[in-house]
């Protein structure tokens, strides 16, 4: 009797447990018939290598695809650090492509270079956050990080100070979490974090046009896949298909106006709390990493414009009052000198604002709680700003817009961070110069590298920001140049930079040359000082500035730039002219040192031999001076001054 389907299914499941004899006995079937059926099953069963090939082919395909995309340099290089010159690294300008999928002009950091190999004398700080930490609207040169760098360099002259600002406009805790492992690899001595305002509308934020949903695990997993070119290809294909189907075009306007997708987020709504949870979860991950690495961290609470920034969007939701009504009540209480009540109402109005460009008060509570949980110090920046504001309520006195500080505000932030660093002894190991704190602060502020062009750029950035939604309706927006209205050459350079070129360095070089052409040396120096402060590794800036000053017979000022270059990268040029200026000051000892060093870099410069001979004359080493001046004449037999000096030396030796 043939096997039934039920029996066949049983044999299929249990053939490895039972022998043919046992199966035959179970079903009372001849053993030959069972063996015949088992042979049939073996023929139908695919060999092991078949499954290996089945699994392996897709893997091999994607590996080869990834290799091919890398060979042909498809997409973006999303390495965290890239070389800007030999031995120097910066944060990759393309790194933001990991977080911005739909934004045309992505932001990038302030491009602070640092040594690839950290030296024993280096004190290294990393700064992380959004546009306020980056120094908007004065970036790249106007943030609190510049204050810290300048003050530390002033006080700790025997340490090499590196303050690397990795902050970027419109990023939030997702970016900070992603960057942190790479930052910890670079052995920071301190990390400073000022972040939270962008948690809703910043890249990948819960209310952003770049949002990937509400799951932190999914968003962070997608970010981790961005290092693969294959994933970039897939993402770009999906983006192209989506664009063709929807007919969407790139949005125009400021980055602030473009990032707010889910524009209205009600107070105490589900999405409101999800944004807070997103920040708390990502920052907990960040601080867990730093704690495990033993790296000190300072966190700052958030400040924003309370007194002079009306709510952007006022709605009646879930039984809560409208934000604009509460703001008016705050203004009334302020006019009655009820400052404490006015402050509370201003904060409540900010929290009720349905357009969350300013972090709610709950965000600062989370920051303080995280500080306690991980035993990290917190600087209460909001309290510092209140204490330095009329009525103890922050307004336009320290804010350029809804949340970005003025230049004075950024210096105030820098001072607050520095004071806590000092109190906690989170400072370089080298000996500090003996200067009172108030003198340190005043010198740092007085020497802060900031030009008129940077001031105009900052002012113009705010004008352009406020010439767009949400400050005005889209229909009210004016053409950029009509808003800027440049009045002089500096204004024109700033306007061109913001509207057309978008090259900060080029704009400053252009203005420096214009000042030089017009023989305005002080203004020329103010611009060159800014360029050097921002790009200390561009050695040609030191040479250009020193040469210019020497052409104007301003040798003492030229000496400063020559020495700055010498400290970074000594060469024939800097040593030659340092020696020449020292010799003119009758400092023959220092001059001899520099001339001798210069000849190691270039032993074919007759002028250096001639000047070195002058050093020996000053020290009454006439024979050595004669030998040296003869070397100058061997290189240049017609060197008139050298011929004169030779005759004088020969006469002196005869006597």
Question: What is the element layout, followed by pairings?
Answer:
Elements: H1 5-14, H2 20-27, H3 31-44, H4 48-71, E1 81-85, E2 88-91, E3 114-115, E4 122-129, H5 131-134, H6 144-155, E5 160-165, H7 173-185, E6 190-194, H8 216-225, H9 229-246, H10 255-259, H11 270-293, E7 297-300, H12 323-335, H13 339-352, H14 361-374, E8 378-379, H15 381-387, H16 407-423, H17 437-446, H18 452-466, H19 480-484, H20 489-501, H21 504-517, H22 521-534, H23 539-551, H24 555-568, H25 572-584, H26 588-601, H27 606-618, H28 622-635, H29 640-654
Helix pairs in contact: 2-3, 6-16, 6-17, 7-11, 11-14, 12-13, 18-20, 20-21, 21-22, 22-23, 23-24, 24-25, 25-26, 25-27, 26-27, 27-28, 28-29
Describe this structure in words.
It is a single chain. The protein is mainly alpha-helical. It has three domains: 5-44; 81-199 and 279-311 and 356-446, SGNH hydrolase (Rossmann fold), CATH 3.40.50.1110; 476-654, Serine Threonine Protein Phosphatase 5, Tetratricopeptide repeat. It has helices at 5-14, 20-27, 31-44, 48-71, 131-134, 144-155, 173-185, 216-225, 229-246, 255-259, 270-293, 323-335, 339-352, 361-374, 381-387, 407-423, 437-446, 452-466, 480-484, 489-501, 504-517, 521-534, 539-551, 555-568, 572-584, 588-601, 606-618, 622-635, 640-654; strands spanning 81-85, 88-91, 114-115, 122-129, 160-165, 190-194, 297-300, 378-379. The strands form two sheets. A five-stranded parallel sheet has the order 5-4-6-7-8, sandwiched between helices. Helix 6 packs across helix 17 (437-446), helix 22 (521-534) runs antiparallel to helix 23 (539-551) and helix 25 packs antiparallel against helix 26 (588-601). The chain is globular and about 135 Å long. The N and C termini lie far apart (138 Å).
């Amino acid at each position: 009797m043939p096997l039934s389907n039920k029996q066949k299914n049983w044999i299929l499941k249990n053939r490895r447990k039972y022998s043919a004899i046992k199966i035959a006995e179970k079903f009372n079937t001849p053993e030959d018939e069972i063996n015949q059926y088992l042979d049939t099953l073996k023929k139908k069963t695919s060999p092991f290598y078949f499954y290996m090939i089945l699994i392996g082919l897709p893997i091999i395909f994607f590996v080869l695809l990834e290799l091919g995309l890398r060979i042909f340099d498809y997409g973006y290089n999303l390495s965290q650090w890239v070389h800007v010159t030999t031995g120097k690294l910066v944060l990759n300008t393309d790194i933001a492509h990991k977080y911005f999928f739909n934004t045309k002009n992505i932001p990038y950091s302030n491009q602070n270079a640092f040594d690839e190999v950290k030296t024993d004398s280096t004190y290294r700080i990393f700064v992380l956050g959004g546009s306020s930490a980056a120094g908007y609207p004065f970036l790249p040169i106007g943030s609190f990080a510049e204050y810290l760098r300048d003050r530390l360099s002033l006080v700790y002259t025997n340490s090499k100070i590196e303050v690397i600002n990795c902050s970027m406009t419109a990023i939030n805790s997702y970016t900070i979490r992603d960057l942190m492992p790479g930052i910890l690899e670079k052995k920071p001595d301190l990390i400073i974090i000022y972040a939270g305002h962008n948690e809703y509308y910043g890249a990948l934020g819960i209310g952003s046009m770049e949002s990937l949903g509400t799951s932190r695990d999914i968003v962070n997993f997608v970010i981790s896949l961005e290092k693969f070119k294959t994933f970039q290809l897939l993402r770009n294909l999906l983006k192209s298909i989506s664009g063709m189907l929807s007919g969407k075009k790139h949005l125009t306007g400021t980055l602030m106006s473009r990032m707010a997708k889910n524009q209205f987020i009600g107070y105490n709504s589900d999405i409101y709390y999800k944004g807070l949870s997103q920040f708390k979860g990502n920052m907990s991950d960040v601080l867990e990493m730093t704690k495990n690495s033993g790296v000190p961290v300072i966190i700052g609470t958030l400040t924003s414009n309370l007194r002079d920034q009306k709510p952007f969007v006022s709605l009646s939701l879930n039984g809560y009052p409208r934000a604009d009504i509460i703001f008016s009540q705050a203004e009334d209480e302020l006019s009655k000198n009820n400052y404490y009540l006015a402050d509370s109402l201003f904060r409540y109005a900010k929290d009720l604002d349905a357009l969350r460009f300013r972090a709610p008060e709950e965000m600062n509570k989370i920051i303080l709680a995280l500080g306690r949980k991980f035993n990290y110090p917190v600087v209460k920046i909001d309290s510092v700003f209140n204490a330095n504001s009329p009525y103890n309520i922050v307004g336009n006195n320290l804010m350029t817009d809804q949340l970005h500080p003025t230049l004075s505000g950024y210096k105030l932030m820098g001072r607050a961070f520095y004071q806590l660093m000092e109190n906690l002894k989170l400072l370089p190991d080298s000996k500090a110069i003996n200067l009172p704190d108030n003198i340190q602060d005043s010198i740092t502020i007085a020497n802060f590298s900031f030009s008129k062009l940077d001031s105009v750029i900052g002012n113009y950035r705010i004008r352009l920001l406020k010439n767009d939604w949400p400050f005005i309706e889209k229909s009210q927006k004016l053409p950029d140049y009509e808003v800027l209205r440049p009045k002089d050459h500096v204004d024109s350079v700033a306007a061109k930079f913001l509207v057309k070129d978008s090259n900060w360095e080029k704009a400053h070089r252009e203005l420096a040359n214009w000042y030089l052409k017009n023989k305005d040396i002080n203004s020329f120096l103010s611009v060159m000082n800014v360029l050097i402060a921002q790009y200390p590794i561009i050695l040609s800036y030191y040479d250009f500035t020193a040469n210019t000053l020497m052409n104007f017979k301003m040798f003492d000022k030229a000496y400063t730039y020559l020495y700055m270059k010498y400290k970074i990268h000594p060469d024939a040029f800097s040593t030659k002219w340092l020696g020449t200026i020292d010799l003119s000051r009758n400092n023959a000892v220092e001059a001899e040192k520099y001339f001798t060093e210069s000849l190691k870099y270039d032993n074919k410069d007759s002028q250096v031999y001639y000047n070195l001979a002058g050093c020996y004359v000053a020290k009454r080493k006439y024979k050595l001076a004669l030998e040296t001046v003869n070397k100058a004449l061997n290189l240049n037999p017609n060197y008139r001054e050298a011929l004169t000096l030779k005759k004088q030396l020969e006469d002196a030796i005869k006597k």
